[in-house]
Amino acid sequence: MIPRVSVVLPVYNAAITVARAVESIRAQTWADWELVIVDDGSTDGTREILRGLAEVERRIRLIEREHAGVAEAANAGAAAARGAFIARMDADDVSWPERLARQVEYLEAPASREVGVIGCGVEFGGDRVANAGYALHVDWVNSLVTPEEIALNRFVEQPVVNPSVLFRRELVARHGGYRDGDFPEDYELWLRWLDAGVRIAKVPEVLLTWNDAPTRLTRTDARYAPDAFFRTKAGWISRELSRVADSRTIFVWGAGRHTRKRAAHLTAHGVRIAGYVDVDVKKTGRGIGGTGLPVIGEGALPEPGEIFVLSYVSSRGAREYNRARMVQGGYVEGRDFLLCA
């Protein structure tokens, strides 16, 4: 029998956590699944643990390969998957019992025919005090549920938690899988699929514990450093501008040095920044940073339709302020401005 759902789990040196992750799949109330585990050349005893688990669970399919990285391992698992739906899972996270059932139910509903990827809410599996910034990121991710919310916020940060998703298998053949490079492979995938028109939504329930281990790649690998995210999304922002900006001049909200550095990635993709917007009156009315480009105050924003604004300010509360200020001025998000940090 071909299972309805294939859970793809790439693993590398996760001897401490992988059994718990596997058991969380075995405990699913949705029983029609296979678990495709790709051991990516582990050297810490993970492979022996996985062999033992595969001996007692016939629905586990173990693929053993030399170390090639998480993108290649995930792609190998997807290529081996037989189900109509592919779910992702990581070796240090825990799926709650109803996860697969709720996600399959969502995608099989007639009203969800146009949705290709379904995520879910996640529980922050870390210290909310010691890692307050990451915890706030989880809260923000959980606030994005509808396809419209996810699409509009895709350039702020990654709007979906990778190990929480389940998607239609044909999307991989149509739009490609994970790509390997000096960038976050999961964020690049979702930006590429969203750019192609794939609709992503979430079950508005917490169905996965997203653990924040100190050894997690997002904390140890340069591909997940902040600048890598800004560099990755710049190309997709430029593509979106080609569709929605209608040859309008581009202004960046935020004239600080860090903001300008992040926005500078756009120039590599042909985006010409005409000026900046800033709330600091000391910066307005003059060229900034030796660029000669003007800086206007928020009160000097022209009427909607004259310019297109990219908000690159990321300090806490500033993003929400910028959005509210532009909406108050008649600007429409997605048509007249985008949040990019």
Chain-wise SSE layout:
Layout: E1 5-11, H1 18-26, E2 33-40, H2 46-56, E3 60-65, H3 70-80, E4 85-88, E5 94-95, H4 99-108, E6 115-125, H5 132-143, H6 147-152, E7 166-168, H7 170-175, H8 185-195, E8 199-211, H9 217-220, H10 226-244, E9 249-253, H11 257-263, E10 273-278, E11 295-297, E12 307-311, H12 318-328, E13 337-339
Parallel strand pairs: 1-2, 1-4, 2-3, 6-8, 9-10, 9-12, 10-11, 12-13
Antiparallel strand pairs: 4-7, 5-8, 6-7
Helix pairs in contact: 8-10
Overview of this structure, please?
- This protein is elongated.
- The chain has 12 helices and 13 strands.
- The longest helix is centred in the C-terminal third of the chain and has 19 residues, at 226-244.
- The protein has helices spanning 18-26, 46-56, 70-80, 99-108, 132-143, 147-152, 170-175, 185-195, 217-220, 226-244, 257-263, 318-328; strands at residues 5-11, 33-40, 60-65, 85-88, 94-95, 115-125, 166-168, 199-211, 249-253, 273-278, 295-297, 307-311, 337-339.
- By secondary structure, the chain is α/β, with parallel strands linked by helices.
- It starts with a strand and ends with a strand.
- It folds into 2 domains: 5-224, Spore Coat Polysaccharide Biosynthesis Protein SpsA, Chain A (Alpha-Beta Complex); 226-339, 3-Layer(aba) Sandwich (Rossmann fold), CATH 3.40.50.
- An 8-stranded mixed sheet has the order 3-2-1-4-7-6-8-5, sandwiched between helices. A 5-stranded parallel sheet has the order 11-10-9-12-13, covered by helices on one side.
